[in-house]
Amino acid sequence: MSLCSFLSLLLIHITLFVSLCYAADPFVNYEFEVSYITASPLGVPQQVIAINGKFPGPTINSTTNNNVVVNVRNKLDENLLIHWSGIQQRRSSWQDGVLGTNCPIPPKWNWTYQFQVKDQIGSFFYFPSLNFQRASGGYGGFIVNNREIIPIPFGTPDGDITIMIGDWYTRNHTALRKALDAGKDLGMPDGVLINGKGPYRYNDTLVPDGIEYETIEVHPGRTYRIRVHNVGVSTSLNFRIQSHNLLLAETEGSYTVQQNYTSLDIHVGQSYSFLLTTDQNASTDYYIVASARFVNESLWKRVTGVAILRYTNSKGKAKGPLPDSPNDEFDKTFSMNQARSIRMDYGEWTENSRGTYNKWDGIARSTTQATNKTELPMPDNALYCGALSKLQKPEDISSATSIMGRSRLFFTLLMIVCALIPIFR
Q1: Signal peptide span per the entry (predicted)?
Q2: Band of the pLDDT at 91, cuts 50, 70, 90?
Q3: Taking the CB of the first residue and of the last residue of the chain, which one, N or C, has fewer CB atoms within 10 A?
């Protein structure tokens, strides 16, 4: 009897010890099924790349040092890679989702990305990086929140809103790719989408009837964090919200010195966070506008994305002309000066800096935790291509559980068994 009790206690202690050895930063898990759908963002039915049947795809919401696991199932008719733009991939370059570090995911196959967003914060997005697929969608937001012990350098917002803007063609990516391969120009986009939707009908001549547009509802007297990404393929866009200031607070993983803009040029691939205070009288809804830059505006008027900012106490629909954009088709000075005005806010080093939001915390962690290893081990589900294709193992598309996940399940079951032993002895 005493021997049984001793063995039970020994097993429990061993299990707890091993569990602590496996203790790590939390995991966030996502399942992505990438496929074609038919959609009409500009009123014309076309082939669009969706994730889990939606366009744009889901926003990945993580926290500094989380381990992100994304099982991507390729239901397209061509190879696929998903790139996590701005994620640093420390010691995991083969998870970056670009040719040269990743072999493509063949049709009807899957690949489980697993990487750590180590010492990062901020607003990013992901997109398919092969075959010009980004021109047909397949993109979504990627948020890395601060850890709770590291406060943000502004009051906690009342809401967090992701806005994806980008030029759009009614031709699919295959047709666009053929044009580029033939040495032709893409030409003028057919429009600009905001969160995968076409423009609000602010002008009966320029915008046809029946187009679905984005509406963002807000409460008066509150402050929202708006994360804006230019996910297009070729067009710089000027972003603005009628009658509202945009307080710039962060860009692609770095907090900025906070300053107000009435509009901001956002170039292809760029991401910005603004603080928007809903301090207007809500006599009507307000336009959210993304218009093309450095072009002849009289010819490109239809290449304008328009969404609606609606207060919960709004008294009517938005009407009238759109808020003005910078008028400098042949002069890049405004945009260049705007870019130069953005300053990073790293904070100052003090004795208490390790408890503040600034990057000294990240620097301290990365330097003290450095090892001689430059890369993590090759995953079991590695994809091989080219000269190494003979090393490829048969792919089990239903298998997407990480080694760490199986280990945790094993030790959980072991602890349950240990707990039950005294009951049945």
Answers
A1: 1-23
A2: confident
A3: N
